[in-house]
Write a structure and sequence with these properties.
The protein has 128 residues and is of the alpha+beta class. It contains four helices and six strands. Helix 1 packs across helix 3.
Length: 128
């Protein structure tokens, strides 16, 4: 049984996130577990989710992402970031984009997440 779709394709926040995520070389979007995910081979970001331990409270406008390991501790100290359910166990973090979001910061988070999983050829295109 497939997961139900848990997002609105006309969501303006999702449109802004797509614009940034899909601008990365070879990045694609795939709906998985009912949510948009962004990949370059492996998944580097997802739209929507919940906090670890609070799965009944959903943050539909959250960006879940793979942080740069060197920045993860600092991000966790920032109250805007949270450890998400399910993928948080693998080091992922989340930030709710509906809360006065800085889109330059989102682009930087996506860039760092992309660099964690992308193949060398895609990173070379990004840096090229």
């Amino acid at each position: 049984m497939p997961h139900p779709i848990m997002f609105d394709d006309a969501d303006p926040i999702l449109a802004l996130l797509r614009e940034r995520a899909l601008a990365l070389p070879e990045a694609t979007e795939k709906v998985a577990h009912g949510r948009p995910t962004f990949r370059c081979g492996k998944m580097f970001a997802m739209y929507g989710g919940s906090r670890k331990g609070e799965t009944k409270i959903v943050h539909d406008n959250a960006l879940l992402f793979v942080p740069d390991p060197a920045e993860r501790d600092a991000l966790v100290q920032d109250e805007r970031f949270f450890v998400p359910a399910y993928v948080g166990a693998y080091g992922w973090l989340g930030i709710d984009l509906a809360l006065d979001c800085d889109w330059e910061e989102v682009a930087e988070l996506l860039d760092a997440a992309f660099r964690q999983i992308a193949p060398k050829r895609a990173i070379a295109l990004l840096d090229g």
